[in-house]
Amino acid sequence: MSQTLKDVILSGDCIEEMNKLPEKSVDMIFADPPYNLQLGGELRRPDNSIVDGVDDDWDQFENPLEYEKFTVAWLTAARRVLKDDGTITVIGSYHNIFKVGSILQNLGFWILNDIVWIKDNPMPNMNGTRLCNAHETMLWCSKTPKSKFTFNYEALKIFNEDKQMRSDWYLPICSGHERLMNENNKALHSTQKPEALLYRLLLMASNPGDTILDPFFGTGTTGAVAKRMGRSFIGIEREQKYIDGAKKRIDSIVPISDLSSLHISCKRKEPRIPFGSILEYGLLQAGDLLFDAKHKLTAKVRADGSLIADQFSGSIHKVGALLTGAPSCNGWTFWYFEKNHHDLEVIDTLRQEVRNKIYAST
After folding, report:
1. What would the DSSP string read from start to end of 101-132?
2. Residue 9: enclosing H or E segment and its boundaries?
3. Among the listed residues 153, 148, 140, the one whose alpha carbon sits nearest the alpha carbon of residue 264
4. 71-113 confidence digits (pLDDT tens)
5. Mind spelling out the 3-state secondary structure of 45-92?
6. What pLDDT, in 10s, does the model give residues 306-351?
7. Are β-strands 168-171 and 110-119 bridged in parallel, bridged antiparallel, or unpaired?
8. Residues 8 and 234: beta-carbon distance below 8 Å
9. What pLDDT is recorded for position 44?
């Protein structure tokens, strides 16, 4: 293939199809591979009715070694198509995630986080022989330790009501109208993931216009969410019944028309503004005073953008740290200036004002 595909479902074996894709052509991979559950017989409820569990042929492997070979092969193929600054997230259960994690590390991936999906409504342990298994684990990895991967920290924090996003995610399993059903009114796919899970992952690790690869596409949750969020997708699936369900599902989604609403702010990608620029633009002047939030500490601004306070002098960060005895200090959020001669306002607002001036001139 001469160019990267967009918004397609490829029918076939995931390893073979990934090997046909151009090298380093996708921005993010979400993989929900077979778990090799090894259930070992029927599961029955207390009333002796049979639980419709995961007993599909695609989850069956002859032995652990065969499953390991399969995992090495598909992760190797995935690594080839992932961009150098891309990330991969693999979801699994206690049956397989430890083996997957070991193989990821052996292939050179760098584990950034293990994210625990805690299910609000898990299936109970029917026989009462073990704990109710109420979570699955996702391993979020960059391609190498030096990859400059996408992490939309500020967007996640806003999404989480201005609290830093944690690695334990409480979300319900896929159910209700979201669950795709077959002609017999049974779940079309035994392990369909909720759209809320993919929404959060794509918000965290991708940007509008990125291409998301899902090598185990199933009923198309990744494609559906990617379309909703202005991302492109490549899905690979070998079961035609899942492909048919995924196509119908994705085709019913109307893409977002207001592209500006997809914009995600990221301070790390904004141009670096030295404190001296605040003086250059006339927003502060040499001799002006800065204060801490409680108006107890004071420092004077000098013409070169440094501060002087008591016996200390240096950058806004250094002087803030020295005055408080802290090992470090973010001067942009520590120091305040007097606005209208009485109200205090954090100097970070001045930095943003300079950024706005720079944007306006480009």
Report:
1. HHHHHHTT-EEEEEEEEEESSPPP-TTSSS--
2. strand 8-11
3. 153
4. 999 999 999 999 999 999 999 999 899 999 999 999 999 999 9
5. CCCCCECCCCCCHHHCCCCHHHHHHHHHHHHHHHHHHEEEEEEEEEEE
6. 999 988 999 999 999 999 999 999 999 999 999 877 789 999 999 9
7. parallel
8. yes
9. 46
